[in-house]
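FIELD: query
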Amino acid sequence: MDDYSGMYAFIRDGEFLQLTIEEAGRVTGFISRYGDLESDRGVFLDQFFKQGKLEGNKLTFTTDTVHSVWYEFKGSVDRGQGKDRTEEDYYVIRGTLTENTIDANKKTSARTRQVAFKSFPLDAALPKTSN
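FIELD: result
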C-alpha cells in the first residue's frame, strides 16, 4: 500500500498541508496557512485535523476551527507527474475543499472549490549538508 504521508502545497504560495497516514486508514495532520482576517493577516495559522480517514486512495478530513474558519476535504490521493518521491508532484491530492467561516453574527457560510495539492519532494524538509 502506498504511503501518502508527507507535505503538500496548499492554496497560496508558502502554505502547506501535512498529511500522516496511520494504522487502519486513520489520517492525522494539519494545514499551515496565512490568516485572512484583519487581526491575523499575514500570520501563519496551523489548523490540525479533527478527523481524517483514508480508504484505498479516497481521502477525507475536517480541521479544527481556528479564528472562525475550518476546512472540510473530500477527494483522493493519486500519482502525479513526479518520477519518484524526491520530486515535486509525486502524489497529488485532488478533490473538493470547503472553507467554512463563522461571521460576527454567528452565521456560517461555506465556499467550495476544486483543488489539486502537489506533494513536496520527500527530502524538502531535510537540512542540506555540505561536504
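FIELD: remark
The CA atoms of residues 63 and 129 lie 35 Å apart.
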